[in-house]
């Protein structure tokens, strides 16, 4: 028996990084988890290696793909209790060179994807009870000159979280909506960018120093906060965003 025994959890972006770590923590705590992701190879492998963990291919930017993934969730689990909107992309195109197409691509995954998840999760959960956890970022609150489009998407995720929480409260749905704001976390999203940088080690040290604790976070650091926000221990918490950032936003 774990804290999430009997709960059915849907985690987008579950084939990598924070989503993967989160899915594993939920199954450790007794949940049944559907991870979804664009990366079918990694997702299928993870599902093959764990009990009570299933995979569906999914593009969060595509509404039809959401309908198909939710249908798969219902065929496996019957219902959804928790949604973690974790899939995301981070582009570092310089502002002056970023094409509208690239801007929209990033918005489509990070903002449209979160909106669609919230919309369909509310439809699935409103007759019962549920929790939604969105993944915002420190970039929801501070600007990063090298990630202007990304900052805009994560600001939107934070605002969407507040408004969706109020929407659920207004209609007396027993659904809480919160977000987590990670600092830099050691996942492929960060390590891939470092690897293509000519002076990766220096950049890594510089980024680490921007966190008062002096290092990057681990995916599990974020997973723990996600599980808390999704749990009944957080039953009086809705519409908020919790930084888990080594002190980054406290400065
Ligand atoms: P990650 O390791 O790159 O994982 C993201 C996953 O999302 C990947 O498997 C990726 O698949 C998938 N994905 C991308 N586009 C998708 C789409 N359209 N539909 C479905 N899945 C898609 O990154 P992460 O660091 O775990 O990031 C998870 C979340 O945390 C993101 O929302 C990110 O913005 C946020 N975050 C991360 C950090 C950090 O420092 N790592 C900091 C703040 C916030 P592919 O690999 O095939 O693209």
Summarize the structure.
Strand 2, helix 2 and strand 3 (53-57) form a beta-alpha-beta unit. The chain has helices spanning 17-28, 40-48, 63-77, 100-125, 148-170, 188-196, 200-209, 219-230; strands at 8-12, 32-37, 53-57, 82-85, 130-135, 175-182, 241-244.
Look at the helices and sheets and give the structural class. alpha/beta
The CATH superfamily is identified as NAD(P)-binding Rossmann-like Domain
CATH class group: Alpha Beta
- Weakly predicted, low-confidence segments: none
**What small ligands are held by the chains?**
NADP nicotinamide-adenine-dinucleotide phosphate
Strand order of the largest sheet: 3-2-1-4-5-6-7
- The SSE string, one letter per element, is EHEHEHEHEHEHHHE
| Strand percentage | 15-25%
Total number of helices: 8
From the N-terminal CA to the C-terminal CA, the straight-line distance is 41 Å
Q: What overall geometry do the principal axes of the alpha carbons give?
A: globular
Oligomer: single chain
Stated plainly, the CATH topology is called: Rossmann fold
The residue-averaged pLDDT reads: 98
Could you characterize what this model shows?
With 251 residues, the protein is an alpha/beta fold. It has one domain: Rossmann fold. 46% of the residues lie in helices and 15% in strands. It has eight helices and seven strands; from the N terminus they run βαβαβαβαβαβαααβ. The protein has helices at 17-28, 40-48, 63-77, 100-125, 148-170, 188-196, 200-209, 219-230, and strands spanning 8-12, 32-37, 53-57, 82-85, 130-135, 175-182, 241-244. It has a seven-stranded parallel β-sheet with strand order 3-2-1-4-5-6-7, sandwiched between helices. Helix 3 packs parallel to helix 4 (100-125) and helix 4 packs parallel to helix 5 (148-170). The longest helix is centred in the middle third of the chain and has 26 residues, at 100-125. The mean pLDDT is 98. Bound molecules: NADP nicotinamide-adenine-dinucleotide phosphate. Residues 12-13, 15-19, 37-39, 58-61, 86-90, 109, 113, 135, 137, 182, 184-185, 187-190 line the site of NADP nicotinamide-adenine-dinucleotide phosphate (NAP).
């Amino acid at each position: 028996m774990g804290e999430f025994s009997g709960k059915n959890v849907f985690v987008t972006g579950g084939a990598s990084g924070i989503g993967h770590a989160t899915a594993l923590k939920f199954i450790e705590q007794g949940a049944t988890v559907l991870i979804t992701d664009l990366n079918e190879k990694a997702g299928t492998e993870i599902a093959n290696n764990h009990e009570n963990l299933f995979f569906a291919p999914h593009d969060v930017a595509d509404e039809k793909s959401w309908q198909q993934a939710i249908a798969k969730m219902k065929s496996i689990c019957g219902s959804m209790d928790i949604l973690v909107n974790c899939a995301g992309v981070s582009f570092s195109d310089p502002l002056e060179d970023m094409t509208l197409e690239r801007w929209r691509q990033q918005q489509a995954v990070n903002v449209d994807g979160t909106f669609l998840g919230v919309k369909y999760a509310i439809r699935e959960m409103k007759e019962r009870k549920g929790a939604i956890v969105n993944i915002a970022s420190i970039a929801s609150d501070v600007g990063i000159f090298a990630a202007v489009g990304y900052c805009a998407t994560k600001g939107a995720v934070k605002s969407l979280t507040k408004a969706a929480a109020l929407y659920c409260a207004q209609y007396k749905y027993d659904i809480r909506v919160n977000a987590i704001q990670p600092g830099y976390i050691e996942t492929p999203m960060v390590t891939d960018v470092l690897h293509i940088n000519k002076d990766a080690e220096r950049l890594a040290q510089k980024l680490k120093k921007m966190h008062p604790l002096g290092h990057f976070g681990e995916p599990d650091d974020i997973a723990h906060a996600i599980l808390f926000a999704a749990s009944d221990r957080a039953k009086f918490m809705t519409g908020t965003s919790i930084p888990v950032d080594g002190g980054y936003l406290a400065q």
